[in-house]
Sequence to fold (227 residues):
Amino acid sequence: MMERYVSAKDKSTLAQKIAQDLADQGEILHPATAHGKKIATSFWGYAWCRAIEQWQDYESRLPAGRSLLRNNTVIDLVIEPGLIKAKVVHKELFELRIFIDEPDEERLTAVRDRCTGKITSLLDLLQGNLTEDILTVLGDPDNGLFPEYGQIRASCNCIDDACLCAHAAAALYGVGAMLDEEPALLFKLRGIDMESFFDTGTTADSLAADVDFSSQDLSEMFGIHLD
Ligand SMILES: [Zn+2]
Fold:
């Protein structure tokens, strides 16, 4: 059966209507918004998107996930240690949870060992203002701080029985977009205490809230384009 064509504007309008209804019922929503064609523009956001695109079994759902996010249909996204909770509107409201295992201890130790003494400021860490050497260690999809393919399980109330439905893909891209604004959420998601992990001597609380985390030339650094 042919799907009825629904324009991007209609998708976005329906999402906003459902979000408004939920807000009227007293729900506090945290929408995720793509930052341009690349979804994310900061070091952490961009590297996150790149990491999820390594999971080849999920490849078929990723374009739909990107499209859903770009149409502003991820109306709520909450990041907790080991858990992403999202509401995505795709003709109707879907609610999902993505469970992420704790990082592998050995891998964490290896990351910490390679970064010892090379990260002196949490602000630099969050801004991705570090040497290319260290950024490569942290952002490595296979050995850095991002989850691996086998560490993730999505549970959505849609009928798609794929291991990752389009709504979960949208939520994962939404995490990338959110990391542009609040990169510390990655550490929260992974259950890593930045201050003790990197031993920088500064506290996350002392960081200004209105810091600009956007970076230049990321596609050059990673040698890829997310589109
Ligand atoms: Zn779904």
Notes: The chain has a mean pLDDT of 86. Residues 8-206 form one domain.
